[in-house]
Amino acid sequence: MLARAIRQNTFLLDVPQITVVIAYDTFELGSRAMAVHERLTERLGSTFNLRQELWKFDLLEDPALRRAAARETAAADIVILATSRDAELPLYIREWLEESLQDHTGVGAFVALFEHPHPRIQPWLEAIARRKGIDFFAQSATTESCHTSADAMPLPVFAGPAGPASSFAGN
Question: Which domain holds residue 115?
């Protein structure tokens, strides 16, 4: 029990853990994803212990690493995918997502951060989340709204079956 508590950095405090997996393709988008994580930590940090796992897209080309990432993602509470791609994700990323979400045990939210406004891959990502019963949130960067600091960055907007409905965590 003590070893598990120390591993999870909870030190026997009765604080539930939230695991966040971040997958990104560029440093800039990885930084945006980290800013979302920082905002979540600010808002939930005293109530939850947020733990993160980072995966750069190119690491997921390796089948062994992709399987490891899929296991972590399947157990994660929040998955953040940050991509500069507009039309299609690489096959190995699509495989990782499908494998990760196939037997998910912890994923409660899937967050997509896009570089382009109205990315053509968003409906595909929304469909995956909907099929798996996972809430989907999305945010597209524009020159005016691309934020790098956690203080200035709004949280992604919920995009349910009827489209954007509310902001994530009360923005």
Answer: 17-163
67 occurs within a structural domain = yes
Residue 109: which of 19, 9, 14, 15 has the closest Cα? Answer: 19
Q: Is 24 helix (H, G, I), strand (E, B) or coil?
A: strand
DSSP state of 108: -
By the 8 A CB rule, do 88 and 121 touch?
Answer: yes
Beta strands in 32-116 (DSSP E): 49-56, 78-83, 109-114
Is the distance from CB of 80 to CB of 37 less than 8 angstroms? Answer: yes
Compute the distance between CA of residue 115 and CA of residue 84 in angstroms, rounded to an integer.
5
Cα–Cα distance, 16 to 5 (Å, whole number): 11
0.85 cut: is pTM over it? Answer: no
Residue 100 phi/psi, 5-degree rounding, is: -65, -45
Residue showing tokens 């949280």: 155
Look up the CATH number of the domain holding residue 53.
3.40.50.360
- Note whether residue 46 is domain-resident: yes
Note whether residue 110 is domain-resident: yes
pLDDT of 10 reads 46
pLDDT, one tens digit per residue, over 4-52 is 444 445 454 577 888 899 999 999 999 999 998 888 888 877 788 888 8
For the chain, how many structural domains are there in total?
Answer: 1
Position 5 in a domain: no
Q: Are 155 and 171 in contact (CB under 8 A)?
A: yes
